[in-house]
Write a structure and sequence with these properties.
The complex is a heterodimer of chains A (413) and B (102). Chain A has 11 helices and 26 strands. Chain A has 413 residues and is of the alpha/beta class. Chain A has 3 domains: 171 residues, FAD/NAD(P)-binding domain (3-Layer(bba) Sandwich), CATH 3.50.50; 123 residues, FAD/NAD(P)-binding domain; 68 residues, 2-Layer Sandwich (Enolase-like, domain 1). In chain A, the strands form 7 sheets. A 5-stranded parallel sheet of chain A has the order 3-2-1-7-19. A 5-stranded parallel sheet of chain A has the order 9-16-10-11-12. Chain A is globular, with a radius of gyration of 23 Å. Chain A starts with 7 loop residues before the first strand and ends in a 13-residue tail after the last helix. Helices cover 19% and strands 24% of the residues of chain B. The chains are: A alpha/beta (413), B alpha+beta (102). Chains A and B meet through helix 9, strand 22 and helix 10 of A and helix 3 of B. Flavin-adenine dinucleotide binds next to helix 1, strand 2, helix 2, helix 9 and strand 22 of chain A. The site of FE2/S2 (inorganic) cluster has 13 residues of chain B, from loops.
Chain lengths: 413, 102
């Protein structure tokens, strides 16, 4: 066991990555201090429900990553509402706004990302314009909807956040239009047939999705805004939600001269080029051994798994980061589960279950290698896909698409 | 209120009392080893897998379809498997014993 009783581990960012890390570090036997800083004043919470159940139920307290007492029990210090402004590697200290500097022996950067607000004419003057990243965003959106009589919502961006928010707002009675710049929704992450499926799903539920809509300006008209696109169309909105992507919070790391490359670059132990500094979660560019490349992910899985690896490494164990990425999304009554990385696929196979009309799966191949699976209301495909990808299992493609063959671990060999 | 007993893979026995929420939340809130609840309880991660003691299985009943899909091909699944995020705490669960699958 390492001698850690007199050491201090400081974590910047208390969300999925930072909080899980802190508890994992205790589990791994760290005896010294653990101090978590976050500018967000709320007790750390799960983000995925913000765009899903939160909008519908509105209860943040059922949404905490850990109850407050757990931090006390594990002797983990939470410093909420405090912004870290710099890292001094030579002195091994961090500076905090309006506070004295804090010393560290080990430092973990878990600063995640913030919602990207595009530079659109008039966006600063727009009223009731929100991003969807934090609890404060979700609360503000919910309040705006509850107090608006017309409830006309324009969502800029047809990615997961935009689509989930659209579905949730529809459920509480809003009139929702989604404007997507590309020629299909979810373009970055799925095959065309998935995009089509989600387009149809939303239209059926009364949400309008318009593609090839490049928003170029927003004009405030008092209590509402008009959103203009470059094809001379425009849309009136009482509430505008921007879901066009994120920007990684890497400034602290960059200013401390840590290696940055589309995220804070870390090795398989989640360690930066400074051996006393680790980085985990959305803010990292890390190596994925299965796909043999450096990637950056925005997912709970990645935040949680990297937190385990970093905690083990700091406590002197060699656990390496080697997971197949997974992700989920809930919209209306549809559950999407994805596993693997589909980038670089050259063939897509669709399997539609014979017994069920709401359940199907999409299998992404690069030649003979299964790269990823998207499963709609189909946990079996998701679980099997995970197993096949992990094991680099060769799949019999004609059996896979033959729905008279039931889905079993040995069916497609 | 329900008393729920967890037995971890290290054979540690932890009895907790819960009034509301899911069994997964109760376990996560009390750091029961082997129950992570990574997806927050939406039946997407299977990090909350438990084996219900056979004599208590009538109290929980079996899984619904999506939960069943998630469990069916898991190596650790047996006939008493449940995802604890799908077990809502109520008097009906009082006294049950759950073995953490991991
Ligand atoms: C609405 C929404 C829905 C989502 N749905 C899903 C889903 O269904 N499935 C899924 O897998 N993922 C989902 N995600 C993504 C998932 O939430 C993120 O991948 C995850 O939150 C990443 O965790 P993190 O700790 O790395 O970063 P973050 O959650 O971004 O946390 C970083 C924290 O660092 C703090 N911070 C940053 N800079 C400083 C500083 N200088 N000083 C102090 N504090 C600082 C921030 O305040 C923040 O709390 C969703 C995200 C959102 C926003
Ligand atoms: S908590 Fe993820 S499946 Fe139960």
């Amino acid at each position: 066991m390492l001698e850690t009783a007199n050491q201090i581990c400081v974590v910047i960012g208390a969300s999925h990555a930072g909080v899980n890390f802190a508890f994992n570090l205790r589990k791994e036997g760290w005896q010294g201090a653990i101090i978590l800083y976050d500018v967000d004043p709320n007790t750390p919470y799960h983000r995925p429900p913000l765009s899903k159940s939160y909008i519908v139920n509105g209860d943040l307290n059922s949404n905490l990553l850990k109850p407050l007492e757990s931090y006390q029990k594990e002797n983990i210090t939470l410093e909420l509402g405090k912004k870290v402004t710099s890292i001094n590697r030579a002195l091994k200290t961090i500076s905090i706004e309006n506070e004295t500097d804090q010393k560290y022996d080990k430092l973990v950067i878990a600063t995640g990302a913030i919602a990207l607000i595009p530079q659109i004419n008039g966006i600063k003057e727009a009223t009731n314009l929100f991003a969807m990243r934090t609890a404060a965003d979700a609360i503000a959106i919910k309040n705006a909807i509850d107090t608006s009589s017309e409830k006309r919502v324009v969502i800029i961006g047809g990615g997961y956040i935009g689509l989930e928010t659209a579905a949730s707002l529809k459920k509480i009675g809003a009139k929702v239009i989604v404007l997507e710049r590309e020629s299909r929704v979810l373009e970055r992450v799925t095959a065309p047939l998935m995009s089509e499926y989600f387009m149809d799903l939303h239209q059926e539920n009364g949400v309008k999705i318009l593609i090839k809509k490049n928003v170029i300006s927003i004009k405030n008209e008092g209590s509402f805004n008009t959103v203009f696109c470059d094809d001379n169309t425009y849309f009136e909105a009482d509430i505008v939600i921007v879901g066009v992507g994120i920007r990684v919070n890497a400034e602290l790391a960059k200013n401390a001269d840590l290696e940055i490359e589309n995220g804070i670059k870390v090795n398989q132990f989640a360690q930066t080029n400074d051996k006393n500094i680790y980085a985990i979660g959305d803010c990292t560019l890390h190596y994925n051994p299965h796909y043999d490349k450096f990637i950056r992910l925005e997912s709970v899985q990645n935040a949680v798994d990297q937190s385990k690896v970093a905690a083990a490494s700091i406590c002197g164990k060699n656990l390496i980061y080697d997971t197949i990425p997974w992700f989920w999304s809930d919209q209306y009554d549809v559950k999407l589960q994805m596993v693997g990385l589909s980038n670089g696929y050259n063939e897509v196979l669709l399997r539609k279950e014979a017994t069920e009309n709401t359940s199907f799966s999409v299998w992404y191949f690069k030649n003979e290698e299964l790269l990823a699976v998207d499963a709609i209301n189909n946990g079996k495909a998701y679980v099997l896909g995970t197993r096949f990808i992990k094991g680099k299992q060769k799949i019999n493609k004609s059996k896979l698409v033959d729905v008279s063959i039931p889905m079993k671990p040995t069916s497609f060999l | 209120m329900a008393k729920i007993t967890f037995i971890t893979s290290d054979n540690e026995t932890i009895t907790l009392e819960g009034t509301s929420g899911s069994v997964m939340e109760l376990a996560v809130n009390n750091n029961v080893k082997g129950i992570d609840g990574d997806c927050g309880g939406v039946c997407s991660c299977a990090t909350c897998h438990v084996h219900v003691a056979p004599e208590d299985f009538a109290k929980t009943g079996g899984p619904e379809e999506l939960e069943n899909d998630m469990l069916e091909f898991d190596d650790l699944t047996n006939e008493y498997s449940r995802l604890s995020c799908q077990l809502q705490i109520s008097e009906a669960l009082d006294g049950i014993v759950l073995k953490v699958a991991k």
